[in-house]
Design brief:
The structure holds two protein chains of two kinds. Chain A is built from four helices and 37 strands. By secondary structure, chain A is mainly beta. The N terminus of chain A is likely disordered. Chain B folds into two domains: 208 residues, Orthogonal Bundle (Cytochrome Bc1 Complex, Chain D, domain 2); 49 residues, SH3 type barrels (Roll), CATH 2.30.30. Classes of the chains: A mainly beta, B alpha+beta.
Chain lengths: 569, 271
């Protein structure tokens, strides 16, 4: 028992009340495997190893969701939008706030038990803000990756640091922003820094000691499988003759050494296959493709690794030789008995605008289908390789640089059989590559994209809540529901501004999501009908969760630098 | 292009440079959206090039020299830059400076940077000696008088709020963009400024332009300068026009008046 209120309540009511209270026990690895059987908790970043962000809680329904009331708010004193997902574990809540604090809260009241404060190296190099997406737990220990590329173990009861391991050198452009994944006795993280010419990797660390157990380089070196996709440079004379491509840079024979392949979203884990699945980010340089001929494995790919050894079992590359920064940074969603086919799959709505299904055991390509307008490719061959159709210089490429979707957590509801995506529609970029020389810790993108709809001759406009000045001219956000088996669109919920929000679905056919506008919305997961909304006043940049304390179901979402928690009455 | 249009720039800049320091900076620089990231583009508007020439004369010439070759090993007229390939690279380098080489950072606003880059790309091609100055005071007179601009636009405390406020337009828009705005307003209209027409379910009509919009509501200023926040659920019509209501001044202003007006707009740097 952790709160005074509960202590008093139990003193009065006697021991029977103990049975209705969460029991603070050890989070064993078996509990993590079976996380979906304890829906009162939210034990991993994506809710379970299956990463469906689906909950069997059903107290809140389409009929009563309009009665949701705000229960409490926790506001951070540190400026900047959060991307964190809370964990709820046996009556405790753990969130991260900028830059690398961990806060332990009472999920009934929002009152704080302790705050662990970590000050990352001020010389850190991170592309996109002081983002952290959450912690992982095993036993009584929380694990957090840091902006300066450390992995830290924290006592969940006291907030005291237990160990700290340097995963990579932050001044070379490495960072960690995603929530770690605990599998058995190891905690797994990957490194960010795809815009700085890192050589990406995924590594596992002993949960007790922080000692590295294995490491898988997402950019294979000489002698390793996949290295052949970093092709040798053509003779200099041929390069010189290839004048139109000069703007994309000169071929770099050492391209793989700074080939990117960052990791910035949490992977998934199949306990039966003992495989862990991770999405690998963009190749470096992002846009100057001529500097790195070949497919550039394992950039823009999913990799399936043996969870004990870190060895590669299979991979699939969504965007070979990516020149659009399409990444593959989505959360891998696992669906069992996909469409009653008997096949267990990884379902994936990729930043490149396609929805995929891959056999979880073999990586076999089962389905690829656009969910938004796509013109960088036309179709797939039988093995799932896209036939690419690069657009002429100056012409728009769909989807644009931020993708048809991005890192925003999708959701799969076994109840509806639908796969839900936060999408950007009617959105394109015009790409302008330029040569870039690798310098440690320096920007290594090789040019950049721009919005195709900017007014010629006028200055560009940045965007960001609360003012939406992007308008219909540059695309809009949507929740898109696909039949998970066919990829056919079943319904769409349009937003005026774009969205970076994750999605939560529940067994009562509710869908919760947010957006840049700051609205937190409940939709009917079957039809997309709007059932309830409330304006939280700042962009929602992470995925909602749900949990139960006693017999009351709660829904929590981040908006801006605050956490809002709702329940009936 | 009429050379006189371009010439307005110089007078403006010369008068303004002395009093401007670090103007408000936007991190996300879009120099000229139709040329960003291209290595070379011959289509830099003359007005931008001339504006850049005057900035160069005021800020760069002391070290780099009138011919761009006063620093050993650096020849700006060559069109090749050691630390920059694209226009964005150039802008970044100028903003950041080069501590090792002794070059300070330069806090240019978007319009200034567009001009500076245009000039650096065209140092060999432009003959600034032929440039004739426009006149800010005369341009202001056109704006407030013959041009009729204040009927819709506002600068400081003068004019209407119906159309976008122009108090700092000279730091937001490049000279080339401003010039095109006067000749072909629709081509330069930002989407947020598209005229909208709202018909509510009770039949009332609001004509205006949007200030903000979300999935459920829209905020706008109407043609009587009134602010509205309207729920989309209360509307039966929501029309967005893509043609600017602003008239073209081609043919209605003389070349000299146009140059003076452009010069005045370029002098508007806000606070």
């Amino acid at each position: 028992m952790t709160s005074r209120r509960r202590f008093v309540a139990c003193s009065v009511a006697g021991l029977i009340c103990l049975l209705s209270l969460p029991v603070q026990g050890q989070v064993t690895s078996q509990r993590l495997v079976n996380a979906s059987t304890e829906p009162q908790n939210w034990l991993t970043y994506s809710g379970s190893y299956w990463s469906q962000r689906f909950s069997t809680l059903d107290q809140i329904t389409p009929a009563n969701v309009r009665n949701l009331k705000l229960q409490w708010v926790y506001q951070s004193p540190v400026a900047g939008n959060w991307q964190t997902t809370p964990l709820v574990v046996d009556g405790m809540m753990y969130i991260t706030q900028r830059p690398n604090d961990v806060v332990a809260l009472d999920p009934l009241t929002g009152r704080v038990f302790w705050i662990y404060r970590y000050t990352p190296n001020p010389d850190r190099i991170v592309c996109c803000g002081a983002n952290n997406r959450g912690v992982a737990i095993l036993g009584d220990t929380l694990f957090m990756g840091t902006l300066d590329a450390h992995l830290i173990a924290i006592d969940a009861k006291t907030g005291r640091e237990m160990w700290k391991t340097e995963v990579a050198t932050t001044t070379s452009g490495y960072s960690i922003t995603h929530a770690p994944l605990v599998v058995k006795d190891k905690v797994i993280v990957g490194v960010g820094g795809g815009e700085y010419g890192i050589r990406g990797f995924i590594a596992a660390y002993n949960v007790d000691t922080g000692k590295e157990a294995w490491r898988f380089y997402t950019i294979p070196g000489p002698g390793e499988k996949g290295h052949e996709t970093w092709e040798a440079c053509p003779p200099k004379s041929r390069q010189a003759a290839d004048a139109p491509r000069q703007s994309e840079g000169v071929c770099d024979p050492d391209a793989w050494k700074h080939g990117g392949g960052s990791i910035w979203m949490t992977g998934s884990y199949d306990p039966q296959l003992n495989l862990t699945y991770w999405g690998v980010g963009n190749v470096g340089p992002d846009y100057a493709g001529a500097q790195r001929p070949g497919d550039n494995l394992y950039s823009a790919s999913i990799v399936a690794l043996d969870a004990d050894k870190g060895t590669l079992t299979w991979h699939y590359q969504f965007t070979p030789h990516d020149v659009y920064d399409y990444d593959a940074v989505q959360v891998p969603v696992m669906i069992d008995n996909w469409g009653n086919t008997g096949i267990n799959v990884v379902a994936w709505a990729n930043r490149n605008g396609n929805y995929y299904a891959l056999d979880r055991a073999t990586g076999r390509f089962l389905l690829g289908k656009p969910f938004v307008k796509v013109n960088w490719m036309s179709d797939f061959d039988e093995r799932g390789r896209p036939n690419q159709t690069p657009q002429p210089p100056g012409m728009p490429t769909y989807p644009g640089n931020q993708g048809g979707t991005n890192w925003y957590s999708p959701s799969f509801s076994p109840r509806t059989g639908l796969f839900y995506i936060s999408a950007w529609e009617d959105y394109a970029s015009i790409y302008g590559p330029s040569p870039v020389e690798y310098k440690e810790g320096r920007n290594f993108t090789g040019g950049g994209p721009r919005n195709f709809s900017a007014v010629p001759g006028a200055p560009g406009f940045s965007r960001g809540a609360p003012i939406n000045n992007w308008t219909e001219a540059a695309g809009h956000g949507a929740v898109i529901a696909l039949d998970a088996r066919t990829g056919q669109r079943q319904w769409k919920f349009d937003m005026t501004d774009v969205t970076d929000s994750g999605i939560l679905t529940t067994a009562s056919n509710l869908l919760f999501t947010g957006g840049r506008e700051g609205f937190f919305q409940a939709l009917d997961a079957r039809t997309g009908a709007l059932l309830w909304k409330t304006n939280l006043g700042a962009a929602i940049n992470s995925g909602p969760i749900t949990y139960r304390i006693g017999n009351k179901q709660y829904v929590a979402t981040v908006s801006g630098l605050s956490l809002f928690v709702f329940a009936l009455d | 292009m009429n050379r006189v249009f371009a010439t307005a720039v110089l007078a403006v800049v010369v008068s303004a440079i002395g009093v401007r320091s670090a103007a408000a900076q936007a991190n996300d620089v879009r120099l000229k959206p139709d040329t960003t990231n291209q290595l070379h583009d011959a289509q830099y508007p003359d007005v931008d090039i001339v504006y850049g020439a005057s900035l160069y004369a005021a800020r760069c010439v002391t070290c780099h020299g009138a011919q761009g070759d006063a620093i050993g090993g650096v020849n700006l007229r060559s069109g090749k830059f050691r630390n920059a390939q694209s226009d964005n690279d150039l802008a970044r380098f100028i903003r950041a400076g080069s501590p090792t080489a002794g070059m300070p950072p330069f806090a240019l606003d978007n319009a200034e940077m567009a001009g500076m880059v245009a000039y650096l790309r065209n140092m060999n091609a432009i003959d600034t000696a032929t440039v004739k100055a426009g006149d800010v005071a005369r341009g202001r007179a056109v704006f407030e008088g013959k041009g009729g601009c204040v009927a819709c636009h506002r600068i400081g405390r003068l004019g209407s709020r119906v159309a976008p406020n122009l108090s700092d337009i000279g730091s937001q828009r490049s000279p080339g963009s401003l010039q095109r705005s006067l000749l072909d307003p629709t081509s330069q209209m930002m989407p947020i400024n598209r005229p909208v027409r709202l018909v509510k379910k009770d039949g009332s009509i609001i004509n205006g332009r949007r200030l903000n919009e979300d999935t459920y509501s829209v905020q706008l200023v109407d043609d009587k300068e009134r602010l509205h926040s309207v729920l989309k659920a209360d509307l039966k019509e929501f029309t967005i026009a893509k043609t600017s209501p602003m008239p073209s001044y081609k043919g209605t202003l003389s070349a000299d008046e146009m140059a003076d007006l452009l010069g005045y707009l370029m002098s508007l740097k806000g606070q």
